[in-house]
Amino acid sequence: MKDKLMDFDEALERFEPVLGFEVHVELGTRTKMFSAAPNPAHPDFHDAAPNTLVDPLSLGLPGSLPVVNAEAVRYSISLGLALGCEIAQSCRFARKNYFYPDTPKNYQISQYDEPIAFDGAVEIELADGRQVSIPIERAHMEEDAGKLTHVGGSTGRIQGAEYSLVDYNRAGVPLVEIVTKPIFGAEHDAPEIAKRYVAAIRDIVLSLGISEARMERGNLRCDANVSLRPRGQEALGTRTETKNVNSLRSVERAVRYEIQRQAAILAAGGTIVQETRHWHEDTGATSPGRPKSDADDYRYFPEPDLLPLAPSRALVEELRSQLPEQPVAHRRRLKAEWGFTDLEFQDVVNGDMLHLVEATVVAGAAPQAARKWWTGEIARLANEQGVEASSLVEPEHVAQLQALVDEGALTDRLARQVLEGVIAGEGAPAEVVEARGLKVVTDESALVAAVDEALASQPDVLQKIRDGKVQAAGAVIGAVMKAMRGQADAARVREIVLQRAVD
Amino acid sequence: MSEITRDDVQHLAGLARIALTDDEVTSLTSELSAIVDAIATVSEIAGPDVPATSHPVPLSNVMRDDVVGETLSAEQIFAGAPSHDGERFRVSAILGEEQ
Question: In this structure, are A156 and A92 located in the same domain?
């Protein structure tokens, strides 16, 4: 069923949107939250086959007992501090009870009434430079669930599935769930605020080095809560929680969509059902999921198998002293270091490519070259395919590509072909160059022969060049480049043409 | 008397995936009421200044280092599985209950 949508501006005129976000961050520790099984969110274990990162606790086998991962606690405290939160003097874990095959214990170990971190704020910067403060309610530790693959039905979604396959590698991956307080006053900026907030969390997590924070891999996941209330009404409207929003672009679109959908229902005299909704990237729409359970239905109670945590103040202060600079300060420093103009830098930030350019520079590329790749060819290809630039290519590969250009092994044009190969999964740039035979022809004798041939076949042009009309050389250069299938350095070809023409 | 109703019991049974007969609902309603009343009596004695005990042993911060340990083999993992495809467990598709 297709939802009726109200025009965004009209929706904003009649209703005030109130936002809230729950962002889950998978921590990149070596082992899981409560057991020593390898953590698939750690780079060493990305490519593990299903159910190979599994121990008795991951399967909820009888008699298995959880033990807290000290590194995950340190990561969580650092994250809490970076979010400007207080760190609890003492906190407990709790069981959240529900039956679903992704959680074989039939409960998730989480934190309920005593999160490790609470009461913070995150400063975000909008495209026009305005700063907005997002209030943080809490950040708590929990474990991730296994991964279900629905088989049968048309699209791999649960609707119409005949059965499901379960991989418990992800069961027990350390998570921090960051919950905002209700965000008022977002108004027309609501979709942008949603995107910038999630990007800010991503940047904080990356700067702390506690997660790879790749949304397309599920390292960072956002649930977006949206409610509307008629202008002038005090009471909050009924909210929906949109899940499965796995890119920054989707977060922005999903919030916009929910505002327009809810406004249309409310304006027609309908009521909003409190429910979770699923975001569908392909159709750009949300669809209803299950009705939202009451927290009571999860029958939370203190986890009897785990003792309380009481982070020492010495540890908290030690971690505080190691915090990296705030994202806003970090941005200012990079801009100065890289020497970008305001416009160039805004382009990078608005394209959400700052961390990509930074990683490319760290991998050895010059800042300007890194910027041109990301905001140019890669952005174009990402746009064409409707995906995030970060999902197309690794910053290290971009740096390697640029290194090949810098050493003269590739022309810009060849480099773009190599990029296509890298994106197509043909390997690292050097491998693509090798496999596709895309090296610049540096064999002088081959170039000279091609130039001589082109000059001989265009005697009129040859004459013009000899008469001093150097710009006529363009036709010959074009012919040579064509003969070399573009794999020659045009500047060098031009030199040879001018030299051979007068010889 | 506490206010445990038949509806409460049926709702809880649903959450716990337990099928109850009408008679069982009746008896559990009164039993649960008695239990809740007993706990209420305890709560009267322990005022708000006495925090609820969740962990009777006065210990905290029991943690392990982030060092990889043993994992199970596929054979061990699937030994007790009613259905699997050699790589993953196979379960009935459960509609509308995704968490």
Answer: yes
Smallest CA–CA distance, residue A215 to chain B, in Å, is 19
Residues 6-35 of B with CB under 8 A from A: 15, 17
Mutate to test the interface with A, among B32, B62, B66, B94 (most CBs of A within 10 A): B66
Domain end call among A257, A284, A317: A317
Domain limits for position A341: 325-436
Check CB contact under 8 Å for A31 and B67.
yes
Question: Among A478, A477, A487, which Cα is nearest to A410's?
Answer: A487
- CATH number of the domain to which A484 belongs: 1.10.10.410
- Which residues are CB-neighbours of A381 under 8 A, at least 6 positions away? A392, A419, A420, A423
Question: What are A40-96's pLDDT values in tens digits?
Answer: 999 999 989 999 999 999 999 999 999 999 999 999 999 999 999 999 999 999 999
CATH at residue B39: 1.10.20
**Residue range A366-370: mean pLDDT, rounded:** 95
Residue A470 DSSP class: G
Verify that A281 and A415 share a domain, yes or no.
no
Entry pTM: 0.80
CA-based nearest distance B97→chain A, Å: 6
- For residues A422 and A475, membership in a common domain is answered with no
**B42-62 pLDDT tens trace:** 888 887 888 778 888 889 999
**Encoded tokens for A364:** 């050895």
| pLDDT for res A423 | 93
3-state secondary structure of A117: strand
> Among partner residues A164, A167, A304, which is closest to B93 by beta-carbon distance?
A164
The predicted-structure confidence for A253-288, as pLDDT tens digits, reads as follows: 999 999 999 999 999 999 999 989 999 988 889 998
Closest by CA to B78, choosing from B70, B88, B66, is: B88
ipTM, 2 dp: 0.90
Q: How big is the A-B interface in CB pairs under 8 Å?
A: 136
Over the Cα atoms of chain A, what is R_g? 28
For chain A, the domain total comes to 3
pLDDT of residue A120: 97
Asked, for residue B24, whether it belongs to a domain, the answer is: yes
- Is residue B16 included in any domain, yes or no? yes
For residue B55, give the nearest of A99, A152, A307 by CB distance.
A307
